[in-house]
Amino acid sequence: MSIMTKKGVWKNTEDEILKAAVMKYGKNQWARISSLLVCKSAKQCKARWYEWLDPSIKKTEWTREEDEKLLHLAKVMPTQRRTISVGRTPSQCLERYEKLLDAACVKDGNYEPGDDPRKLRPGGIDPNPESKPPRPDPVDMDEDEKEMLSEACARLANTKGKKAKRKAREKQLEEAGRLASLQKKRELKAAGIDIRQRRRKRRGIDYNAEIPFEKRPPPGYFDVADEDREVEQRFPTTIEELEGKRRIDVEAQLRKQDVARNKIAERQDAPAAILHARKLNDPETVRKRSKLMLPPPQISDQELDEIAKFGYASDLVGSDELTKGSSATRALLPNYPQTPNQAMTPLRTPQRTPAGKGDAIMMEAENLARLRESQTLLLGGENPELHPSDFSGVTPKKKEIHIPSPLLTPSATPGSAGLTPRSGMTPARDGFSFGMTPKGTPLRDELHINEDMEMRDSAKLELRRQADMKKSLRSGLSSLPQPKNEYQIVMQPIQEDAEEPEEKIEEDMSDRMAREKAEEEARQQALLRKRSKVLQRELPTPPPASLELIRNSLIRADGDKSSFVPPTPIEQADEMIRKELQALLEHDNAKYPLEEIANKEREKGSK
């Protein structure tokens, strides 16, 4: 008995069977899919689909952007291959990562992918065969493979299983029974035998035939008999009517129409038909031309003209125009090299990126290789030296490449002789370095034709510098874009008076009565609080007879006074107290008479 081991590389037939099985059974029934393949398990089938056969997997060459993203994500999220593999499989990411690290670790720079020690040698066993291309089928297949292929074809071609066959058989039997009963009824009716089943009447409401408590709407002005007519609903009976036309059939029909149309066109006008067919088959017409996308220019046309003017003299060095003439004439012409002064800005535009920075991908790969080779922190030692890297986001940071221009060098450093000449700038300290040339002075003046400017008049230079600063500021502000919208802020005046009350809602009668009652009680309480302390404490008040006695005593005391002897302060105070006492008693007796107080006390006692 031979034992079948479920391992090994995948073949082309197995891949095709797996794709057809996934189309039929889906991506969840891997056990049923693996039953079609003799030498493969359900786990292997699932891995093969997600590692190679899935249409969303990219099998093209790795681009520079993908390499940068892979190295950056491997630095941010190490050992999470399935997380960082977007559009690629984890095995592809790991393989590419190892290749980049090997290329970065090579010292001489001659990296050969064929010298990879991880490459599978002849006779070796592939540990991950699911992520490799399929092996082509042999011409003479084994009997087991032929049997597996025929069985898979039979099972995949069977679109109707046992359940569908049983349902179709039951439906056919029901249709045959219905036709037999119908034929029997017709024969009995033709013989004069009435076999109609009479149902006996029910006492109550037949809920299957009637609508309980139905109220029919009264008939209207217009006739609606046609609207109540039942429309016959036709349901699909065949699979083609249910599912619609297949795409293959539609394409075949369109192909037939194209062939017939071409034949008619060839009969009528053969040269035009051939020309039209050639135009349709031309790949240039099929391929859509993409729009040319160029980066924005870093140097304007005016700056290019200025650079050309600056370099015109250096281009003439050694040309026929300078070689013509006598030796005396050539002696008068100085030698204008490309850079007249060491501190001058170069007039030629350098390359796109300065040399010596290296490749960003190789720098990231070297960083990761050094981090992988570094020991644990517990052992101590120095940290590995890494190139500057970026951890600001999940994706690598894009660097915009700017073309260096001699006209864009900074001009704010005073006293430096290596800046680009601009009109109206302060001259250098010596008369021979023209890094910051004055107005009208040429860039190169080795014959000393121009007069040296005196540096003594610092006040004029300061005024000129301030004027230049104002001019540059004004030009910078004038280059700002025009405003699209106009805004106007209007401050509302502060109202000193109180705000007008809002419109009141009409108050309810009960609420108004309650409010008035509460206001009346509050007013009464305020009046009661204004009484004297005797009445507030409900002490006994003197009767009107005592008031007469007090008044008579005051009159008598006034009559006893001598008009010659002035009263003492104590006497005056006593007199004022008695007058105030008399006024209080008269006020309380007039406003709160004794009868009213007695009535209130009686009411309290009765309660």
The total of beta strands comes to 0
Please bin the fraction of helical residues. Answer: 40-55%
Rg, rounded, reads 56 Å
Report the β-strand fraction as a percent range: under 5%
Q: What distance lies between the first and last C-alpha atoms, to the nearest angstrom? A: 118 Å
The chain-level mean pLDDT equals 76
Quick one: overall form? extended
Family: Belongs to the CEF1 family.
Keywords: DNA-binding, mRNA processing, mRNA splicing, Nucleus, Repeat, Spliceosome
GO molecular function: DNA binding
Main location: nucleus
Descriptive overview:
The protein is mainly α and about 600 residues long. Among the domains are: about 10-155, no CATH class; about 310-345, no CATH class; about 525-605, no CATH class. It contains 23 helices and no strands. Helix 1 runs parallel beside helix 7 and helix 21 runs antiparallel to helix 22. The longest helix has 29 residues, at about 160-190. The model is unreliable at about 340-360 and about 410-440 (pLDDT under 50). Its main location: nucleus. Pfam families: Myb_Cef, Myb_DNA-bind_6. It comes from Medicago truncatula (Barrel medic). GO terms for molecular function: DNA binding.
Observed structural traits:
mainly alpha; 47% helix; repeat; Homeodomain-like_sf
What secondary-structure arrangement, pairings included, does this model have?
Elements (H helix, E strand, L loop, with lengths): L11 H14 L4 H5 L7 H12 L10 H13 L4 H4 L5 H16 L37 H15 L4 H29 L48 H5 L3 H22 L1 H12 L1 H4 L14 H10 L1 H4 L4 H4 L3 H6 L27 H14 L84 H21 L30 H21 L3 H4 L7 H17 L8 H23 L2 H13 L1
Helix pairs in contact: 1-7, 4-6, 4-17, 6-17, 10-11, 21-22
Pfam family, one: Myb_DNA-bind_6
InterPro entries: CDC5L/Cef1 (IPR047242), Cdc5p/Cef1_C (IPR021786), Homeodomain-like_sf (IPR009057), Myb_dom (IPR017930), SANT/Myb (IPR001005), SANT_CDC5L_II (IPR047240)
Subcellular location: Nucleus
